[in-house]
Amino acid sequence: MASGFSNMFKIPELRKRIFFTLALLAVYRIGCFVTTPGVDRIKMNSIFGGDGQGMLSVFNFFSGGALEQMSIFALGIMPYISASIIFQLLGVVVPAVERKQKEGESGRRAINQWTRYLTLGISVVQGAFMATWLQNQSSSGDVAGLVTMASPLGFKLLTILSLTTGAVFIMWLGEQINDRGIGNGISLVIFAGIVARIPNALYTLYEQAIGDTSGTVGLSGYQVILLTVIVLLTIAFICYFERAQRRIPIQHAKRMIGRDAFSDQASYLPLKLNTAGVIPPIFASSILMFPATVAGMFPQADWLQAVHVALMPGDWRHMVIYIGLIVFFCFFYTAVVFNPVDVADNLKKSQASIPGIRPGKQTSDYIERALDRVTVVGAIYISLVCILPEILVSNFQIQFSFGGTALLIVVGVSLDTVRQIEDHLTNRHYEGFNGPSNRPRLRKSVAG
Question: What do you get for the CA distance between the two ends of the chain, in Å?
Fold first, then answer.
């Protein structure tokens, strides 16, 4: 592994890509501390108390804490992610978008351009809501003076402009990393925001471990060791399952050379165990936080407060609904991004088939059954990872802020980035992080 790290900087192109990525991520982190004009950052931070409220905590999480600073990057990358997901869903129900998705590079560029326009529109709408929310908060007694500008209309327009510009700039940073850097730009932006909060999370855990001067008993040495072991095992668990695949063997038609028939090298169709990625826990968390947000708007409604209490993290009802939503979105999003019929058609066009399975409908049915079984295991895996922090909090009273979704993102993005670096190394005859690869060179997958 040490030789792999040293080899990274021997390739000029790879070295340039790594430093370019780090530079853009540094720009993003600096921008997270540039406060939106007309907002008192100290008062804004007092509203959040470090963790956010309701739906806002989701945005604060993915903005790397920029929302509680009321930074120009407060909207984060969520507008772009929302726009991308919308177009993926439209590709299933709108024939025009589906045709664009199948047009290759030109279609991809058109959809990317539409995604940018939709990101701009979503940012404007969210910026308007954010400006209105800030003005309402500023009129309350607890945070009076949060908005320092005298002109309400001027503040609203300036806030919309600042937040929209920040969201579009983050989108541009992610695209630049994709084109000229290393790794997935959008994922790395989220990754940087989460990793930047690790020191604060560790310090909070340290304070819990030693207790405080008022006589509060801290964590025992046994609990600290147990928590450390659980976190390390969870990371190893994520690494194993993120790399896990169900490989369906693919047989290619024989080709004639002279009088002899030769078959191509063996290949396979890889079905990832976690096809949906981190989308299911993100959607599930957003839905479960919506009742808390509504309950905060209507404190007089007793039934809303009862629902809010039932959906608090740690409650068994919250866990059951959370797991159910994760399982649902695992199957739903997998069905959106992976179409067995298209894969079967691609196999047929390339004169390839699954041994023992007829091309066409039988092939698509076989792939769909295999995908459903894999998705069941993947849904169970994601549910276990995401529910573990709630079990720790409820049983050990540990405020474990670095939750399962964060671990999924950090480990998944790290594995993907390391894989791309290894591809650069092996393509130039260098050893990867795990030493020389003995894997046979296989035909490129026909999954898409």
Answer: 32
Report the predicted TM-score, pTM, of the whole model to 2 decimal places.
Answer: 0.77
Backbone angles phi, psi at 250, to 5 degrees: -120, 130
Q: Give the pLDDT of residue 297.
A: 60
Q: CATH for 1-196, among 1.10.3370.10, 3.40.640.10, 3.40.50.300, 3.40.50.450?
A: 1.10.3370.10
Measure the CA–CA gap between 183 and 17, rounded to whole angstroms: 9
pLDDT tens digits along 384-436: 888 877 776 666 655 555 667 788 888 888 888 888 888 888 776 655 555 55
What residues does each domain of the chain span? 1-196
What is the identity of the amino acid at 398?
A: I
Beta bridge partners of 255: 262
| Size (the chain), residues | 448
Gap between the Cα atoms of 203 and 198, Å rounded: 9
Give long-range contacts, CB 8 A cutoff, 24+ apart: 85-89.
85/279, 86/118, 87/111, 87/114, 87/115, 87/118, 88/336, 88/337, 89/336
What DSSP string runs through 48-63? HTTT--TTHHHHHHHT
Q: CA angle, corner 166, sides to 161 and 167, nearest 5?
A: 105
pLDDT in tens, 362-380: 999 999 999 999 999 999 9
CA 95/CA 429 separation, integer angstroms: 44
Name the 3-class secondary structure at 155.
Answer: helix
Cα separation, 122 vs 102, in Å, equals: 26
Q: Which of 412, 414, 391 is nearest to 403 (CA)?
A: 391
Q: By 3-state DSSP, what share of the chain in percent is helix, strand and coil, each rounded to 5? A: 65, 5, 30
Q: Are 76 and 59 in contact (CB under 8 A)?
A: yes
Pairwise CA distance, residues 307 & 311, whole Å: 6
What is residue 370's predicted lDDT score, i.e. its pLDDT?
Answer: 92
* 3 state DSSP class of 342: helix
